[in-house]
Design a protein that fits this description.
Helix 4 runs parallel beside helix 5 and helix 4 packs antiparallel against helix 10. It is built from 11 helices and 9 strands. Helices cover 56% and strands 14% of the residues. It is of the alpha/beta class. The protein is globular. The strands form 2 sheets. It has a 6-stranded mixed beta sheet with strand order 1-2-3-4-6-9, with helices on both faces. Strands 5-7-8 form a 3-stranded mixed beta sheet.
């Protein structure tokens, strides 16, 4: 009965977040639990352009300052978490905009990976490339059955940046990561659970959100400062190394984006995706 009541309440939330508020990110904080939902809401596929990333970065920073008790990333859309980084930002890019775009994405990873609160990716549908990196930056990953997740950059003519590679290696190990990254494999929900890329499977979005909240609640009796300090000690070196190398990462991103191989690969991928959706 409690589960049914909770699901009914969540149904109202899904309808609320699907409305057009003019914003690309919505934030809802449960006053009782202190757990925040950060909702991607850019139809039709939540592709992450500069404007969405800017809002997401601001939201994560604000929640850090407010000392929330948990952060759950999720989607307002019915059939997808996020299609990843917006192709239009990477295809024949303008230098200044691309650099601002990538710096903002870097900032999001730092804020998410090092966030003091428990973090969860609550996913349904497709979670490729940049969307997968958001999930890997979280502490816990819940995915609705019949979804897909992976780093498929090679399919689009790109090489995965070192921090993408390290993020996946941290979760599933070097050997499995090598095969997955070089083939651009997208894992089914069951495959992802089997190799440890995700932590739990849900029947539907409502159950996925309940499981996401349950993970955050694991720490409700743990002093926030002690938990946050321990997490930061565990993740400190990764963040320091990333900050040290982010300038070179920006250069590599731009050079990769303007390369002939990336342009041809992304153009082919866009055409292929367009055919599938028509």
């Amino acid at each position: 009965m409690l589960l049914l009541r909770r699901s009914a309440h969540l149904g109202k939330l899904w309808r609320k977040f699907s409305t057009d508020s003019g914003r690309l990110i919505d934030v809802d904080v449960d006053r009782q639990s202190g757990i925040a939902s950060v909702i991607l809401q850019r139809p039709p596929v939540n592709s992450m352009n500069l404007e969405l990333l800017t809002e997401l970065s601001a939201a994560l920073g604000d929640l850090e300052n407010k000392k929330c008790k948990g952060v759950i990333l999720r989607s307002s859309l019915e059939k997808i978490f996020s299609a990843g980084l917006d192709f239009k930002e990477l295809y024949k890019p303008k230098e200044d905009r691309l650099k601002t775009f990538w710096i903002t994405f870097q900032d999001i990873w730092i804020k998410l990976y090092g966030h003091s609160a428990p973090t969860v990716a609550c996913m349904h549908g497709t979670t490729p490339a940049g969307a997968c990196i958001l999930a890997l930056g979280c502490e816990y990953r819940v995915m609705v059955k019949n979804g897909t997740i992976g780093l498929n950059e090679t399919q689009m003519g790109y090489s995965a940046p070192p921090w993408f590679i390290e993020s996946m290696e941290d979760i599933i190990g070097p050997r499995k990561s090598e095969i997955a990254l070089t083939t651009g494999k997208m894992f089914s929900t069951d495959e992802a659970l089997d190799i440890g890329l995700i932590d739990d499977i849900a029947e539907n979005r409502e159950e996925a959100f309940i499981k996401s909240e349950a993970f955050c609640q694991l720490f409700k009796n743990i002093p926030l400062s002690a938990r946050a300090a321990t997490k930061k000690l565990i993740r400190k070196k990764k963040i320091e190394d990333f900050i040290k190398n982010r300038a070179q990462d920006l250069i590599d991103c731009y050079e990769d984006a303007i390369s002939d191989a990336a342009e041809e690969g992304l153009e082919s991928f866009i055409k292929s995706s367009t055919k599938k959706n028509t």
